[in-house]
TrEMBL record, chains A, B:
<feature type="domain" description="AMP-binding enzyme C-terminal">
    <location>
        <begin position="452"/>
        <end position="526"/>
    </location>
</feature>
<dbReference type="InterPro" id="IPR020845">
    <property type="entry name" value="AMP-binding_CS"/>
</dbReference>
<dbReference type="InterPro" id="IPR045851">
    <property type="entry name" value="AMP-bd_C_sf"/>
</dbReference>
<keyword id="KW-0443">Lipid metabolism</keyword>
<keyword id="KW-0276">Fatty acid metabolism</keyword>
<dbReference type="InterPro" id="IPR000873">
    <property type="entry name" value="AMP-dep_synth/lig_dom"/>
</dbReference>
<protein>
    <submittedName>
        <fullName>Long-chain fatty acid--CoA ligase</fullName>
    </submittedName>
</protein>
<dbReference type="Pfam" id="PF00501">
    <property type="entry name" value="AMP-binding"/>
</dbReference>
<dbReference type="Pfam" id="PF13193">
    <property type="entry name" value="AMP-binding_C"/>
</dbReference>
<dbReference type="GO" id="GO:0016874">
    <property type="term" value="F:ligase activity"/>
</dbReference>
<feature type="domain" description="AMP-dependent synthetase/ligase">
    <location>
        <begin position="34"/>
        <end position="402"/>
    </location>
</feature>
<comment type="similarity">
    <text>Belongs to the ATP-dependent AMP-binding enzyme family.</text>
</comment>
<dbReference type="InterPro" id="IPR025110">
    <property type="entry name" value="AMP-bd_C"/>
</dbReference>
<keyword id="KW-0436">Ligase</keyword>
<dbReference type="InterPro" id="IPR042099">
    <property type="entry name" value="ANL_N_sf"/>
</dbReference>
Length: 547, 547
């Protein structure tokens, strides 16, 4: 080999910070507080405050590699920790505030968090597990609401902490492969496991997010990360916004549809990103009040984390002229892995076929590679039919978990096993039929719960549908569907089966329907099928016995 | 430090090749031959032919690190070498066919080229320096025109060479820091020097080119690299197009305005990139024949390599609705360093102010850093007035030249000295006032030749203007302007001075004007001011003596 002769310039988050200050000092960062007031800052303020924070953390004894945890909603101060801790060589660890205190205790201990930055509004939650976390030396409280009760002397006010500090910091030069952030999977598949993003993986992911054919984040954009910053780095949007210099709008804790719509209209948001549940709620509200919110600035809503039902994508487009970008990713993939864009060469297809592409999980973004394999590891054909477990690799895919747990998720030839069951078609579009742990196997045949759910969610009375495996005497497992109806609507088992029967083999149709007010969800907004199975796993057996 | 736990997936060009085949197999590559016929291929063909080429090169004995030179116009087979050689671990070395045979001999020897791929239409040029190149083992001839004269037995036909080979190749895994391409500076500043791009630098540059706020190359684009592939990798556009999957249109040797306009209209080009001279010619032709070519598909023309005069940018926009993207770069920067985009926060400015931004050299793209320094190395303020030498650094900036030549271009604190004299304003926009070797110093004061040229080129009779230093008895140097008039137009010294005098201090105005049919240029299309000084350096002294 002949060595290149280009500079050894590391890919670190420090460059984003410097760039934001140098070129985009006047651009805005808007944060909503718990009391709904808006706080406005600029990238210039943000840079100076981040430098102050770094100085303060150094004073508190934070050293390279130390974990600085956050227990926070999405807001500017959270962003200051997001950049400040990694740029000084420490590691930010985002705690998922939707988890049970015991899980949080386990995770904070496992990561050996040394400092915790916690929103004052979340102090009650923190105090539920604080005792369990032996590693913590300092608790910094973000004053996002008026103080309540007695403040502990060990809890330091964020603003008081940074006030006396200098607004410049001698950022160290860092190895691009050093850790920048730790993010834990939510633990629906065993104990939560830590994914350790490096500066390099985060930077490369950011470059891809800003690519024109991915999300194409630009300086002229106004970005609203609805997805929490504790969920896979809010899909990398905060970093993308900083690199591009975009205006950022943080929703704080107000993630209900009317609050989000008010914010999108008032701040002229151009890109917003969140899980399907959020967008289902928003679409329902828009349908009820057409024209109430001026969303003309929006150029794309990004949906991921769970399958975006075709009816959702189609509804936004046809009824409100809003384009949906559907993306797939995981905590383990920093997170964006694939994105559903209709290829240029397919632009002659009819609307239904295009919707078929847009509602798929898409194909790999540059530098991610995809394949699917049978249970015995055989690589499967891209025929649009054969189901297998999706495997991916790339510079922003995990190579191991923190502490070396779960080694079985990594193949010997360098791929990560996603746990998602997919088909891949000739064009490379992949379609998730199930998560492997949720697969329904009826008499030895796989049935795709996702396909059934999408079909059910196109019924006018259905708000949400989750299909899962119930035990069955003869077939071992049979599909059962949990249904949430739209307000004031009704539907029967017969109507629902009639609505979908043309699309599926007869044996795919659910054996029964259970109607619920709400489908149990994971902390990241996915259907919690383990819970459904716990509640209704014996439903068909009982019914069989009763009949 | 805590190490990240993400995959060690290298940033190599191999991924682009695989991606093109996997997702964009049907997308087109169109090449114009010397006889003006168009050859159409697809990314699928391209992949298979590139694999065949790699097998053939391996058979010829090409080993990792070996240099495979090209002496070629822009066309698909050139692209096959561009990707095939680096992906097999070799290094492509693009020879600049506009250089003198002696220079080419020097460069090919210096790079120790082992194989040369040469267009049949350029065989006469190759034969002029072939004897000088001791390292060459094989000459591969691209059959771009009918054979003339006796073919030497040592010259292998490209098509015959690859025909028997397999269309798969076991691409090796490569170190991302290994060399992918060598490109020589054109040598107007001393001996030509080799810049060695790595896979990493090329990949990162490509990611930036595809960023929405840089050129934002997308799959739906049709890209026309007018800039030669031997000139700083055609500004990275071929790689950007492959990563995005865009249709590519190669102009071959036909770079005259009517040929380019025909091609742009016929192939519905959306992005075209070239030096100002090309665009000046095209604008003139469009002005003469408004409406003759349908350029409605164009979304941006990229201009760089020399300063784009404001009148050019304004003319395209106001008279033809075409947006110009002005970018600055060097062979040493892979090449894009800065880009002139009007910031979102400046969108309220009037048209003149916006044109002032668009006609500047812009500000650094992500991961490039810029500063300017005085002769003693002092870092200068960003006040829009103070002139100094531009220095840059970043992952796609050279850290040394091949063979270690020119070490004085690299500062001890890790920056590259560009040789461009600039001002930088508060927003970070830089404006090249001169190349350091072309600076005019009148009585100890710097005069910006570029500012004078831009002002002169806004005169309706002036096609091109080059201002340079002529010797002067009293002031040591004084500005002299070389002018090319538009066809059928006239102008006098008095008219030209009157046109620009409001904009400049009196002592900046050229002492005299010389009218020429053509301004001498370098092989990369820049004004060759050394030549102008050679021809007219004594013009004022002689005139003084005569008066
Ligand atoms: N667009 C999408 N369509 C369908 N499923 C998706 C999509 N995006 C993400 N997912 C699902 O989300 C999973 C990744 O979720 P994430 O890493 O955020 O947490 P989690 O997997 O729920 O946590 P845990 O691993 O603890 O169960 C993917 O493996 C996939 O099953
Ligand atoms: N947009 C631009 N505006 C003004 N000048 C530009 C622009 N883009 C490039 N240049 C000039 O081109 C130079 C880089 O040219 P390049 O590396 O392609 O070859 P070269 O410098 O002419 O060769 P040599 O170094 O042998 O003289 C820059 O240093 C700058 O002077
Ligand atoms: Mg998971
Ligand atoms: Mg140069």
């Amino acid at each position: 080999m002949l060595a290149g002769r280009m500079m050894d310039f590391p890919l670190t988050l420090t460059h984003f910070l410097e760039r934001a200050r140098t070129f985009f000092g006047r651009n805005e960062i808007v944060s909503r507080l718990p009391d709904k007031t808006l706080v406005r800052g600029t990238y210039g303020d943000f840079y100076r405050r981040t430098a102050k924070l770094a100085n303060a953390l150094a004073r508190l004894g934070v050293r390279p590699g130390d974990r600085v945890a956050t227990l926070s909603w999405n807001h500017q101060r959270h962003l200051e920790v997001y950049l400040g801790a990694p740029a000084m060589g420490a590691v930010v660890h985002t705690l998922n505030l939707r988890l049970h205190p015991n899980e949080l205790g386990y995770i904070a201990n496992h990561a050996e968090d040394k400092v915790v930055v916690v929103d004052r509004s979340l102090l009650p939650l923190w105090r539920k597990f604080a005792d369990q976390v032996r590693s913590v030396r300092h608790v910094i409280v973000v004053p996002d609401c008026p103080a309540q009760g007695e403040p502990t002397s060990a809890e330091i006010d964020y603003e008081e902490l940074i006030a006396p500090e200098k607004d410049e910091y001698p950022w160290p030069s860092l190895d691009e492969r050093s850790a920048a952030m730790i993010c834990y999977t939510s633990g629906t598949t065993g104990n939560p496991k830590g994914v350790v993003y490096s500066h390099r993986s985060t930077v490369l992911h950011t470059l891809i997010v800003c690519n024109a054919d991915t999300l194409g984040v630009r300086e002229a954009d106004t970005v609203l990360p609805v997805v929490p910053m504790f969920h896979a780095a809010a899909w990398g949007l905060p970093y993308a916004a900083i690199m591009a210099g975009s205006k950022i709008v943080f929703p704080g804790p107000h993630l209900d549809p009317p609050s989000l719509l008010d914010l999108m209209a008032a701040e002229k948001v151009t890109i917003a990103a969140g899980v399907p549940t959020i967008w289902l709620g928003i679409l329902q509200l828009l349908d009820q009040h057409p024209g109430k919110w001026d969303l003309s600035a929006i150029r794309s809503t990004v949906i991921g984390g769970s399958a975006a039902p075709p009816a959702l994508i189609e509804g936004f487009k046809s009824r409100h002229g809003i384009d949906v970008t559907h993306a797939w990713g995981m905590t383990e993939t920093n997170p964006i892995g694939t994105l559903a864009r209709v290829k240029h060469g397919m632009s002659h297809l009819d609307d239904a076929a295009k919707l078929g592409c847009k509602a798929s999980q898409g194909y790999a973004v540059p530098f991610v590679e995809q394949r699917h394999v049978a249970e015995d590891g055989t690589i499967l054909p891209w025929d649009g039919e054969t189901m297998g477990e999706l495997e991916v690799r790339g510079p922003w895919v995990a190579s191991s978990y923190f502490g070396g747990e779960g080694p079985d998720r990594f193949t010997t030839d360098g791929w990560f096993k996603t746990g998602d069951v997919v088909t891949i078609d000739r064009e490379g579009y992949l379609r998730i039929t199930d998560r492997s742990k949720d697969v329904i196997k009826s008499g030895g045949e796989w049935i795709s719960s996702v396909a059934l759910e999408n079909a059910l969610m196109s019924h006018p009375a259905v708000l949400e549908a989750a299909v899962f495996a119930a035990r069955h005497a003869k077939w071992t497992e049979r599909p059962l569907a949990a249904i949430v109806l739209k307000e004031g609507k009704t539907a029967t088992k017969e109507e629902l089966n009639a609505h979908i029967e043309a699309k599926f083999a007869k044996f795919w149709l659910p054996d029964d329907y259970v109607f619920m007010a709400q489908i149990p969800r994971t902390s990241t907004g996915k259907f919690l099928k383990t819970k459904l199975r716990e509640l209704y796993g014996d439903h068909l057996e009982k019914k069989g016995a009763a009949e």
